[in-house]
Amino acid sequence: MVNEYPQVMTIAGSDSDGSAGMQADLHTFFTREVYGISVMTACVAGNSYGIHASIALPLDFIDQEFADISADFKVKAAKTGMLADSNLIKNVVANYKKYAFGPLVVDPVIMTKHGDMLLEESAFETLRELMIPLATVITPNFYESEKLADMKIKNDDDLVTAARKLQQMGAKNVVAKGYHQDESQIEVRDFILLESGKSFWLSAPYHNTTHINGTGDSLSACIAAEIAKGTEIERAIRIAKDYVNTAIGNEIAVGHKFGPINHWAPKIK
């Protein structure tokens, strides 16, 4: 008997050091026992010290990737990563509407975990207007929630308000990640708002480490993998939170400065 594994697609850039982007997504897909398929949008040359060069792929090539995947594979869910400019975002939105790829998890790579802007303002507006309404789940970091909701988040109530604003923009389910820049903090608390109206907080220990590259990629990839396996949304989010926290809490010695999380540490549940 031939084993059948759910097929999951990442739409993202290639990170040459393997710690983030498409590589982090594929690591996650493999460890969650789904088959990973990719639409590559860009390539980045870098290592644990930093990014040193990047190149965007032509839009007609990206169109062909989508067409070829649709013609041959049964994609059960997909996720997005870094989409560098407005034209690329429009291209991805158009292709996602054209083909049947299942629920979409949007990792809105807008700002770094330190609050630095990654997208030009025009690309940000395009993502907010066109991509968010496609999201079955959206997973912004603390600063991305501030930017998308156009507000400062100073306390728990503010994060709840920001999540509700994201849902009003069209995202069905929201994972609003909490602040995690204070080395003295004990835990990280994320606010979850589901399509049903149910909401809750997820807490995990704070790990003071430089090996956190690919954290956001892996969280969204894990949610997509679980959705593809038929896991209901709330359970998928809880699994992903535990997966990433375990991967951060069990460091591996890869790279000399900013390293990857440990995708081997979490076990299938």
List keywords for this structure.
269 residues, alpha/beta, 8 helices
How many beta-strand segments? 9
SSE topology string: EHEEHEHEHEHHEEEHH
Shape: globular
Main sheet, how many strands, which sense, barrel? Answer: 9 strands, mixed
Q: What is the strand content?
A: 15-25%
Q: How far apart are the termini? A: 24 Å
Helix content: 25-40%
Rg (CA only): 17 Å
Please identify the structural class as seen in this structure. alpha/beta
Order of strands, main sheet, comes to 3-2-1-4-5-6-7-8-9
Give the helix tally.
8
Tell me what you see in this structure:
The protein has 269 residues and is α/β, with parallel strands linked by helices. The chain contains 8 helices and 9 strands. The protein has a 9-stranded mixed sheet, with helices on both faces. Helix 2 (59-72) packs parallel to helix 3 (86-98), helix 3 packs parallel to helix 4 (121-131) and helix 5 (142-149) crosses helix 6 (156-168). The longest helix is centred in the C-terminal third of the chain and has 17 residues, at 233-249.
Summary, kept brief:
The chain is α/β, with parallel strands linked by helices.
List the helices and strands and how they pair.
Elements lengths: L6 E9 L5 H11 L3 E13 L2 E7 L2 H14 L2 E6 L5 H13 L5 E3 L14 H11 L5 E2 L3 H8 L6 H13 L4 E4 L10 E7 L5 E7 L9 H14 L4 H17 L20
Parallel strand pairs: 1-2, 1-4, 4-5, 5-6, 6-7
Antiparallel strand pairs: 2-3, 7-8, 8-9
